[in-house]
Specification:
By secondary structure, the chain is an alpha/beta fold. The protein contains twelve helices and twelve strands. Helix 8 runs parallel beside helix 12.
Length: 327
């Protein structure tokens, strides 16, 4: 592996060996730090399906989600590469919204201007890379298209100045753009729905019926579990739609010896990316199995169904307030 290039994007990076059989990589093109095993690095280098821009974007999206969950240095192992192949790309609207969120995060004051150059000049490399990362883009032409859309909506002011070595771009948020972001941040405030992400195994039915479901109802909200909802759409599309409609997500990370419930981690990460609150729970005897991606969060480590019901209801009300269906 080249010690100066990101294994994912072959872009400049800082790399050093870790205590295990792998490398720590700090790559602005991948959005920050990550660990990659030696075998995963070789797979990225040698397998044609991992060389496509589509796959690289999906893997970078996963890294962004993990950092949103508080995992500052996600791990890329061989199994994760296989998992990423089945991920769904961000929608255009999600990419537009993330474009606005990134501008806001870099705007020190109202009307603050952000500059970048295409093709990227060294002084603006990090900003250019961040636009690519957070908008799930493989090329700057995609970022420019998203920018033009936001400009047409009146959300940003955009100026482009052709120069000898490319084009200099200046972008700043306009008041309607701040209003759009406020709308996104306030999405679902009036929702009475709570999405439940959990292991759909018969052994967990009582935990849901006598614990999670009753706790959500005690707090004044309506629980939605995707396996118990009638729908005609693809299951992944329906999950995303229901999370978007929800005021918050309850994610229970209880698992068996077979390993982590990947869907629960995905759904929690997706909700975090939308700024939808996530409340973490796990049966106490399984808490040690929780992946470090989420272990730093304050899980409700329940031992009985009554314990789960009482503590979860209290956490919901303390975090979000009583819901509109509170009796």
């Amino acid at each position: 592996m080249n010690n100066n290039l990101c294994p994912i994007w072959q872009a400049p990076a800082i790399i050093h060996s870790g205590p295990r059989d792998g490398y720590y990589v700090n790559s602005s093109r991948a959005g920050g730090e990550y660990f990659i095993s030696r075998s995963a690095s070789l797979s990225l280098e040698r397998r044609d399906e991992y060389q496509s821009d589509k796959f690289k974007v999906l893997l970078t999206n996963w890294l962004v989600e993990q950092r949103n969950l508080g995992n500052e240095c996600p791990e890329i192992l061989d199994q994760k590469l296989k998992d990423v192949e089945n991920r769904k790309a961000l929608s255009i609207q999600d990419r537009v919204d993330n474009f606005l969120r990134y501008i806001k995060s870099k705007s020190e004051t109202l009307g603050y201007e952000i500059n970048f150059h295409s093709p990227g000049m060294q002084i603006y490399t990090e900003i250019t890379d961040n636009f690519l990362v957070f908008t799930a883009s493989s090329h700057l032409s995609e970022v420019i298209s998203l920018s033009e859309y936001c400009h047409a909506q009146g959300w940003i002011e955009q100026k482009s100045s052709p120069q000898q070595d490319g084009t200099f771009h200046t972008i700043k948020l306009r008041p309607p753009g701040y209003a759009r972001l406020a709308e996104l941040e306030g999405t679902n405030i009036g929702s009475s729905q709570a999405f439940v992400a959990m292991w759909f195994d018969a052994s967990m039915n009582k935990a849901y019926e006598n614990g999670i479901k009753l706790a959500i109802e005690d707090a004044g909200y309506k629980p939605v579990r995707i396996d118990r909802k009638d729908h005609n759409n693809k299951i992944d599309d329906e999950i995303i739609a229901e999370i978007r409609r929800s005021r918050f997500v309850v994610a229970d990370f209880t698992q068996d010896e077979a390993g982590a419930r990947g869907g629960v981690y995905y759904e929690a990460g997706f909700a975090h990316g939308l700024n939808i609150p996530v409340i973490f729970t796990c049966r106490k005897d399984a808490l040690h199995k929780v992946h470090f991606d989420t272990r730093q969060y304050n899980h409700i480590d329940w031992e009985s169904y009554d314990d789960l019901r009482e503590r979860l209801a209290q956490r919901i009300s303390a975090t979000l307030g009583d819901g509109p269906m509170k009796k």
